[in-house]
């Protein structure tokens, strides 16, 4: 066991308001007055109100038949005006029989002193100084006024709790007030000590995710040149000043502002100095502007006034010797009226702290049915464990502690000082939800009754993004969001975000709208006409094939190509399959069927035409000059090889391309900002291009060969018919490609289907219908004798040349 002993020079205390015997004692640390050179977070001496609240609360508990029914609480209260002078008193609180025994072994845990818990201290600095002493044996120390965030470190201060919000809670309220009034360009002045420095760190951290900029930061102490501070604030055009300071430094700042004629400012005050009588009693204070204060919520303690008026308030007494804080506190002249007139902030916090320890002790003693088990041994750590579980409702307020020892549901009031009168204008609640409410109509602003402005740059118009200028993001220029972008000011006011691929927006938008999806349904009038036209073409092709089959031995059918005519007519009918898939929403299957039938079977048509054109030229020109070549060609069925070759090549190209990258639905979003055009991609671009080149080559080859036969016999001129068909085909696709480069609307698919249909009708109408006319209406011209005469006349004409 490791132990050390501290021996104290004890001083006796007469019976007074500062001590009361009881079964269990509570300690109290209150800054009843201010020793020379001591800096406190909270209001100035002499303050006898708060320790009277502790006395009142303990008396109320002792009179209760519900809370600690057969237990009497006592107290020992110290005037904790200085850590230096008060350490003997603090050590006396945790001593036992004049000594303090420190042990770190659980098996050797012994009571350390008379108290089960301590209420105090009244400042962050004092609490940081004494909290380690109470941590040694886990004696609960509940402060009613220490707000330093450093005290939230559970590993370092496990026995410390508080009934006041931490600096983080207070800064959060200040930030919400700034945001409520849209003040983004502020100065922060802090006292150069523990409370102010902690507030500075918290402020800098908490403003990061907000739009608030700390344009100017300065520490204030006894040597501060306030005139220079005010000049810097005016130079940067700052209208709102947050003063996070202990009372003496804050009051010195305000006094300097009055002396230097600082005007038209908004001063954000913490509760450390806002309620000082030096402010309310100073008539010139209105000249500096409007003072807005934030303070922990207070409540009227029923029965407290009667308690004060019923007591004789005696002077605390100490034996003579070294200076102790109480010796200068002459309370003999303080009346109950004086105590009740004192500023009442933190009275409720003292009240709740006392009740929290009493309720914890009640639970440790297992009080039930008007009795408590007082025979067992009670250790302070037991009380501490129960204090952490506190769940009280006092004066309609829920009191619970969070995992950091602070209030789970802090509550803050917002005040304004005007004409020497403090008026509550709002509140900040966290239970059941976080709500800031401010009644602006109660605020008398210095700026002609209107809310003052404090910004570096005026807010941008709707749909304009902020472009930062300089180191502060509150200083910016405004840039209008372009088409296809929008500004989500809640997510990022500094960047225009792009709309998704399915959305669009105009310039300066704050949101995107869904694009309209455009495609041609089957119910469209043009679609109906084209589909009907395709069906008629297919029917005509099959009808002509039947007609040619019936008259397959006639000269007209033979001169038109014979068996090749049937290949062409069937291919034309199969080509119409593609036309049906240019409408409705595309799918992968419909995209394939949109291209494959037309490309493949139209290749077959053109292959037959170029072979037929070649045969015509050979029959009438080359047969006469090169009879052996022509005979060899016909003997080995050369025409079928010449047809099969391009068809097979096209089939290979299509199969390879569709296997690697088939045509697929695409959303064309780059043509119109507010529309999505549903179309089909071509798939493998290289192979698709090769297929198109093959078609174009066949067209050119057919056109060249047919043009060579333009001077054939008038009544047997198949080459002229093929030339005219191909000319119409070329003109059709030239028109379509020209339109495609100009127009990009949803009807481009309709035009594509129309071009395909015209390509098919060009062959059917210009090549086959004239032959059908001869078969049906001029049978005399469809005889072998008639055709033989035409051939003999043409042969004689060629021979004579």
UniProtKB/TrEMBL annotation:
GO MF entries:
G protein-coupled receptor activity
State the superkingdom: Eukaryota
G-protein coupled receptors family 3 profile domain: which residues? 526-783
* One annotated Gene Ontology cellular component of this protein: plasma membrane
Read off the SUPFAM superfamilies from this record.
Periplasmic binding protein-like I
Instruction: List this protein's GO terms for biological process.
Output: sensory perception of taste
Compartments where found: Cell membrane
Tell whether Membrane is among the UniProt keywords.
Answer: yes
Protein name in the entry: Taste receptor, type 1, member 2, tandem duplicate 1
* The organism of origin for this protein: Gadus morhua
């Amino acid at each position: 066991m490791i132990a050390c002993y501290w021996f104290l020079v004890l001083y006796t205390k007469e019976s007074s308001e500062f001590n009361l015997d009881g079964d269990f004692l509570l300690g109290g640390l209150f800054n009843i007055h201010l020793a020379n050179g001591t800096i406190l977070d909270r209001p100035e001496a002499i303050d006898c109100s708060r320790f009277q609240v502790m006395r009142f609360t303990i008396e109320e508990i002792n009179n209760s038949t519900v809370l600690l029914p057969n237990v009497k609480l006592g107290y020992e209260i110290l005037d904790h005006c200085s850590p230096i002078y008060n350490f003997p008193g603090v050590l006396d609180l945790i001593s036992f029989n004049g000594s303090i025994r420190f042990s770190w072994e659980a098996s050797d845990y012994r009571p350390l002193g008379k108290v089960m818990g301590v209420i105090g201290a009244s400042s962050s600095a004092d609490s940081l100084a004494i909290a380690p002493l109470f941590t040694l044996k886990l004696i609960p120390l509940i402060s009613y006024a220490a707000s330093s965030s450093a005290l939230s470190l559970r590993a370092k201060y496990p026995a410390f709790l508080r009934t006041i919000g931490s600096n983080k809670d207070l800064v959060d309220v200040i930030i919400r007030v700034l945001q409520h009034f849209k003040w983004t360009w502020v100065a922060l002045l802090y006292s150069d000590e523990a409370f102010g420095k902690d507030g500075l760190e918290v402020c800098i951290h908490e403003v990061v995710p907000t739009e608030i900029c700390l344009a100017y930061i300065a520490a204030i102490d006894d040597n501060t040149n306030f005139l220079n501070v005010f000049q810097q604030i005016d130079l940067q055009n700052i209208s709102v000043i947050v003063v996070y300071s202990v009372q003496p430094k804050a009051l010195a700042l305000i006094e300097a502002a009055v002396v230097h004629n600082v005007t038209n400012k908004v001063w954000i005050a913490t509760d450390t100095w806002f309620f000082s009588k030096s402010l309310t009693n100073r008539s010139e204070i209105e000249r500096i502007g409007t003072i807005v204060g934030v303070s922990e919520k207070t409540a009227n303690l029923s029965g407290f006034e009667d308690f004060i008026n019923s007591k004789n308030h005696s002077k605390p007494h100490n034996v003579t010797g070294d200076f102790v804080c109480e010796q200068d506190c002459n309370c003999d002249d303080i009346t109950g009226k004086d105590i009740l007139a004192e500023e009442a902030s933190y009275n409720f916090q003292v009240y709740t702290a006392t009740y929290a320890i009493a309720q914890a002790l009640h639970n440790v003693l297992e009080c039930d049915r008007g009795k408590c088990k007082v025979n067992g041994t009670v250790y302070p750590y037991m009380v501490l464990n129960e204090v952490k579980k506190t769940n009280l409702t006092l004066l309609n307020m829920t009191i619970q502690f969070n995992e950091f020892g602070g209030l789970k549901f802090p509550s803050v009031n917002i005040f304004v000082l005007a004409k020497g009168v403090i008026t509550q204008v709002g509140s900040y609640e966290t239970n059941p939800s976080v709500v800031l409410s401010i009644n602006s109509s109660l605020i008398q602003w210095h700026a002609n009754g209107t809310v003052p402005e404090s910004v570096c740059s005026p807010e941008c118009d709707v749909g304009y993004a902020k472009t930062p200028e300089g180191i502060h993001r509150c200083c910016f220029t405004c840039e209008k969001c372009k088409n296809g972008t929008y500004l989500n000011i809640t997510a990022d006011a500094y960047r225009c975000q792009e709309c998704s691929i399915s959305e669009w927006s105009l310039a300066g938008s704050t949101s995107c709208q869904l694009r309209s999806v455009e495609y041609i349904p089957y119910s469209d009038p043009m679609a109906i006409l084209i589909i009907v036209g395709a069906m008629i073409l297919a029917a005509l092709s099959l009808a002509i094939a039947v007609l040619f089959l019936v008259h397959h031995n006639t000269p007209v059918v033979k001169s038109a190509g014979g068996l090749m005519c049937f290949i062409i007519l069937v291919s034309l009918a199969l080509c119409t399959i593609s036309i049906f898939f240019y409408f409705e929403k595309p799918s992968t299957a419909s995209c394939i069927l949109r291209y494959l039938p037309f490309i493949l079977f139209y290749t077959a048509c053109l292959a037959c035409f170029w072979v037929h054109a070649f045969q015509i030229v050979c029959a009438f020109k080359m047969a006469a000059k090169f009879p052996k070549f022509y005979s060899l060609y016909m003997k080995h069925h050369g025409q079928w090889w010449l047809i099969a070759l391009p068809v097979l090549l096209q089939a290979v190209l299509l199969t390879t391309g569709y296997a690697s990258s088939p045509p697929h639905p695409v959303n064309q979003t780059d043509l119109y900002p507010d529309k999505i055009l549903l179309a089909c991609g071509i798939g493998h671009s290289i192979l698709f291009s090769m297929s198109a080149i093959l078609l174009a080559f066949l067209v050119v080859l057919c056109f060249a060969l047919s043009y060579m036969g333009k001077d054939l016999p008038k009544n047997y001129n198949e080459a002229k018919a093929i030339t005219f068909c191909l000319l119409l085909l070329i003109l059709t696709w030239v028109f379509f490609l020209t339109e495609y480069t100009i127009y990009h609307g949803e009807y481009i698919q309709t035009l594509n289907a129309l071009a395909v249909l015209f390509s098919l009708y060009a062959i059917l109408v210009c090549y086959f219908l004239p032959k059908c006319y001869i078969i049906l209406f001029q049978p005399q011209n469809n005889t072998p004798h008639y055709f033989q005469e035409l051939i003999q006349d043409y042969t004689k004409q060629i021979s004579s040349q």
